[in-house]
Every structure is written in C-alpha cells, then in structure tokens.
Amino acid sequence: MSALPKSPRFLSVANQKGGVGKTTTAINLGTALAAIGEDVLIVDLDPQGNASTGLNIDRKSRERSIYDVLVGEASLPEVIVPTAVPRLSIAPSTLDLLGLDLEIGSEADRAQRLRTAVFGLADAYAAGDDRAGPFSYVLADCPPSLTLLTINALAASHAVVVPLQCEFFALEGLSQLLRTVEQVKHGLNPELAIHGVVLTMFDARNNLSNQVVEDVRETMGDVVYDTVIPRNVRLSEAPSYGKPALLYDLKCPGSQAYLRLASEVIQRERQMRAGVAA
C-alpha cells in the first residue's frame, strides 16, 4: 500500500511594493523547482493574471479560476490547469478577483478560504482525484497590495519568499511587508515565517545595485538568499512568448540564477523542517 501524500509546502511570493520581480520569481522559481523534480502548483492571486499569461494559459482555460474557489463555487482541483512545463500546474487568475473583498468580505472565514482549499489537496488526491497532485510545493503569486487576497495567501503559507529589487527604497517596501507578516502571525497564522529575501534585477555595473545588496545583507542577515537574480533581458522577454525563462532560454543568466535559487530553497526547506523536528 502506497504512503498517503503529504500536504504541500505553501510559499507565498509577496511584496506590497510593485515592480520588484514578484511574478517573474513565482513563474521561474516554480519552473526551476519542477525542473529538478518537484511537483509544483502556482496559485495566481493577482487580478492582472500575469503569472497565468506568462505560462500561456488562454482565456478558455480560465473559465474557472481561483476566484471560483475563494467564493465557494469550485474546489481547487477543479480549476487547476497543466502548463507546458512538466510537473508544473497553475490555478489561474481572472479580473473577477478584483471584487473578492466585496463578495466575501463579511464572511467569518474570509481570510481562511485559500488555506482550507490548499490543505484539502492531499485528501482529494488520496480520494482518487488526480487533478489534486500530489504537489510538493504550492507557490502563491500575490498582488502588489495588501488586500484580502494577500491575507488569504499569508494565512495559508508556511513561509514567504520576498523578492526585493536592487534599487533605491528597496528596504522601505520590505519593512511594510514585514509588518504585515507580523500582523498575520499574531492574528491568523502563528507558524508563518520569512523563508528568504531574494534580490532581483541586480546590475553588477551599477554602484547603487551593489550598495543595495550590501545594505540588505547587513540589515537582514542570513534570511537573504545567496542567489542574486540579475537584470536580464531574457527574463523580461519570456512572458510575451507565454514561456518561463527556463523554456525560453535555459542558458541565459536569469534562468541559471533561478535554478540556483530553487536548489537553495530546497536546502533551506530541509533546514527549516529539521529545526521543527528538533
């Protein structure tokens, strides 16, 4: 008899500041984890749906979306769509998410809808629903604002991956997110942690980029991943072709950086689990 599937590890890719490489990180970290053998589900929580578009999910495949799950009109397995990347699936987004606060804002469980859906995946798979996985990782691409969508993601998460652009005011955006994480820990999810800070859009020729890296590492210490994501035109081009960078150009510096980040995430996961076990 095969072992029952474990609940997936849920990581939110979040920053309340826009333009930091959040969706790029969600898509390409998810792809890189899949490339090294993990089964990954991306949950697109941004009403703009850039993660869905970047993975070439057409409008017909979005007839049911994560919105339907959050308002109680569908189960999570019912909206999961496979992508062109083996082992990578997505629960797509639609503009309907813009009205979520109005739709369920008065409901007592409004902040826990996603948590309930995600942690039911293992049970659904065990009951014979192959659409439910089994997934080892769920990555949420959060909107660049503090809405009920972001709160749902953080309430469901084991930890948060924070993309941080190597530009002026980077730490200002980080401090806002850290305050939000602390609020969610106290009110909804006491186990929530910062998984790591990933520095993005790094330009080694730029003195400011180098200074930001130095400042963030000095301020945040070991929580900052060793891997730094470079500013790379291939990372910017790939979404317009409906592909992750790793499919668009595996050898480009951006793709290689995300492969290193995926390995680092897995290693940090082992350390975090060992710490819990201890």
UniProtKB/TrEMBL annotation:
Name this polypeptide is given: Chromosome partitioning protein ParA
Native species: Amorphus orientalis
Residue ranges of the TM segments: none
Location of the AAA domain: 10-194
Source organism, top-level taxon: Bacteria
Function, in words: Involved in chromosome partition. Localize to both poles of the predivisional cell following completion of DNA replication.
One Pfam entry name: AAA_31
